[in-house]
Structure formats: structure tokens, C-alpha cells
Amino acid sequence: MRFWKEKRLLLGISGGIAACKTPELIRLCREAGATVTVVVTEAALQFVTRTTLEALSGGPVHGDLFAPGGSMEHIHLGRETELVILAPATADLLARMAAGIGNDLLTTLLLAHQGPVLAAPAMNCRMWRHPATRRNVALLQGDGLHLVGPETGTLACGEEGEGRMAEPPAILEAGRRLLTPQILAGKHLLMTVGPTREALDPVRYLTNHSSGKMGMAIAAAALRAGARVSLVHGPTASSPPSGATAIPVTSAREMAAATLGLWPDCDAAILTAAVADYRPATSQAQKMKKDGSGAALTLELVENPDILATLSARRAAPPPPGSTPLPASPLLVGFAAETGSALDHGREKLRRKGCDLLVVNDVAEAGSGFGEETNRVSLLWRNGREEHWPLLTKAEVGERLVAQVAAALATTGAK
Ligand code: CTP
Fold it and tell me: Do 241 and 313 reside in the same domain of the chain?
């Protein structure tokens, strides 16, 4: 993950049972390319050993405010870091922070640190709900502390409730969002993702190979850039990124209804879904049976609504007489997975569908097929501008595309 390369993280660990998940967080951060400096409270070492933390972070574990030669550590350590992550952040650590107490290296360092701080609280659910904790969290958030979690689930004490520390990948993702420029802040992005399924009977359906990975990667990048994301998605194995408003649908007609309903409120729509162009003319209520004659089965298919073309037509339609002035048009981005002469097909499709930008890829090309982690795309803009990107990971395509959409929104001044 290029993003974390050369980034310096300071991981503060306080004394809760969730500290046993922190080694996994350190491993993830380092695997992503970040350097990790570990600072522990005294209690943290009751739950995770210094040896484990040193081995995984590849450096010394700091904890003693009065260590020989370390008299200015609380100043230097904070200065040399882009982001402080507190995982776990116990009720006690949050209370000391809220009161501005600096009675160990970690809390003193937090007083001296000026950059962003992300806390992953973890505690028993009654401790999390306690008025003192509620008060402390509200104070700290007012002071600019960012939180990830806690999650609801089974707690270490066996109780069920809110208080589980967020999982390490979610903590890392939250940190990444904090460090990402908010180029889509205040913007509402509408997306369609994945395949649709068109039922033949209660058992069978027509569909395609779309994995939804490209769409989910764009949604993740947009969320990191501060957008509100409404994600209308067909049945896919890829999960919507956390923070997106997911609207699961099955058929093309359901996808069309959900998308058209959200369209008037969005600033940009990115339609990545591989919508089934046709559906069976009738869907049988009972499972279809073989008649045993060996005769060929003929299916009658009817065309599905074209969501992209419908949105494009709505945008072009003049406002109804007497209506209040319309907001600036949402930006409309389509995708086209082609085989052979992809660019020619794409140019024709851009004209036919009337979108602002069409992102084209050749699914027959190595590395750009369905379900791959990479993609090589070309961007065809309505004004004739074309960009041909190299083979990139889908995450990188998502980030670059989000930057393009943000730039286009900034110049068109869409609502
Ligand atoms: N699309 C849509 N609704 C449909 C079909 C396609 O919104 N019923 C959108 C897709 O989400 C994509 C773009 O239109 O953004 C192009 O999809 P594609 O399937 O390539 O377009 P088609 O018009 O169906 O062309 P083809 O004949 O090549 O399948």
C-alpha cells in the first residue's frame, strides 16, 4: 500500500485485554510500509509483552517518562509522527486525557503532541456507557480527538454490548481517512456496483462475472476523501466499505428504482455496475421442470431499463415550467467493460449514453479481467479529452478516479 510508505505512526497502548490485538495492528501497519513507534502505559505490559512489541515494531518500546537519557522523549516522540493511534484506549486513559493529566510518558506526550490522534476505545459496555466516560469522550471529541469504534459484540468478560475494540484493519483504514486530503468533503456520491441477477424461477437466474471490486475500491477512496457515499449494489462477494450507505438490490429494475430515487440529491454518480441488459420475459413462480423430451428450451428475454441513459436523459431534460431553478447537474460517470477495440466501443458508448466521463477497460486483457486486483483503464471525457492509465491496482484506479471527479466537480461547481 503506497499510502503508508514513509509514514510515521506512534502507537500508544494502554492496559486493557484488547492490547492482545495490538501486535496484529503493528504487523499490519508495518506491512503497509509505515514505521511504528510504540509507547505503552505501565498497565499495558500486563496484557502484551515488551518482547512481542519490540519484535513486531522493530524498535524499542517506550514507557518510562524518567528513562535514563530520555528526559525529552515526550516532546521528541510526538514531533516525529504523522498520526498517533491509541489502541486500546481504556476508560482510564480517556479520563486522564480529558482532564489534561500527564502522569506517564503516553499522557505527557499526548499533551505535547499537535497532530491528529485516533483512539480505538475498548472496555466493558457498562464502563463505556458510564456517565463519566460519556462526558470524557464528548470533551475529547470537542478537543479534536477522533474515534474508531468501539464495536458491539461479545466482550472479553463474556457480556454482550458496545465496547469491543475495532479490528486492526478498521483502525488502519480510519487512520488513513484522517490523513487523506478531504477533496470530496460535503459531496454526495451515488454509485452502482456489482452484477444484477434476473430470476428465471425461484432457483435460477441470469447474471454476469462482475465481482464489484472496482466499484468498492472507488467507494473506499471517495469515503476517505470525505464524500458521503450511497452505494446501490447487486449481489457481490466484496463488502461495501464501512461508512458507505449500502442499498442492496438484486435485479436491474430494483437497481434502477433505488438509483433514480437517490439521483436528485447527489453531486456525482459513478455507475460501475454490470447491469444485466435483459431479463426473462416471465419469471416462473415455481421451479421450472424438464419435460424429458430432450427438446431445446427457448427463453424469451426483454430489455432492462438503462440506468445510465435514463439519468443522462433526465439531466438533459428542460426544467418543468414554473419549477424552482434546478441545482447544477450531477456529474455522470459510466464504466464500460469491453472486449476487442475497447476504445472504439467506448467512444461510441460515450456518445450514445451521454455521460461526462466513460471509464473503459478491456476485460480480455491480462490483469484487467473480472475479479482481478488490477485494472488498466482509459478515461474518455465528453469534451474529447482522453487519458490512458497504466496497469494499476484497483485501489489506485479508485484513488486517481476520485481525484479526477473532485477536480471536475470543483471546475463545474456542481451543487
Ligand atoms: N448501464 C446501466 N444500465 C443498464 C446497462 C448499463 O446503467 N441497463 C451502465 C453501466 O453501469 C455502465 C454503462 O452503462 O456504467 C455501460 O454499461 P455496458 O453494459 O457496457 O453498456 P451497454 O449499453 O449495455 O452496452 P453493451 O451492449 O456493450 O452491453
Answer: yes
**Beta carbon of 256 within 6 Å of any ligand 1 atom:** no
pTM: predicted TM-score of the whole model, two decimal places: 0.86
| CA-only gyration radius of the chain, Å | 26
* 178 pocket-lining for ligand 1 (C-beta < 6 Å): no
Q: From the CA of 358, give the closest atom in ligand 1.
A: 15
Q: What residue numbers bound the domain in which 367 lies?
A: 188-286+297-412
In a domain, 292, yes or no: no
Is the pLDDT at 379 greater than 60? The verdict is yes
Q: Which of 193, 271, 360, 370 to mutate to test the pocket of ligand 1 (most atoms within 8 A of CB)?
A: 271
Q: Which atom of ligand 1 is nearest to the CA of 336?
A: 20
20, 29, 125, 157: the catalytic one is: 157
pLDDT one-digit tens code per residue, 124-174: 999 999 999 999 999 999 999 999 999 998 888 888 889 999 999 999 999
- Give the CATH number, domain containing residue 356: 3.40.50.10300
- Residues 333 and 261 reside in one and the same domain: yes
Known catalytic residue at 157: yes
Give domain status of residue 146, yes or no: yes
Do 193 and 165 sit in the same domain of this protein? no
User: Does residue 268's CB lie within 6 angstroms of at least one atom of ligand 1?
Assistant: no
Query: Could you give the CA distance from residue 383 to residue 156 in angstroms, rounded to a whole number?
Result: 58
Query: Which CATH number characterizes residue 104's domain?
Result: 3.40.50.1950
- 385 or 319, which is more confident: 385
CA nearest 37: which of 70, 64, 3, 11?
A: 11
Kindly state whether residue 138 falls inside one of the protein's structural domains. Answer: yes
Which position has the grid cell 466484496? 238
- Is 361 within a domain? yes
- Ligand 1 pocket test, candidate residues 210, 275, 353, 359, most atoms within 8 A of CB: 275
Each residue's pLDDT tens digit, 295-338: 888 999 999 999 999 999 988 765 566 655 444 579 999 999 98
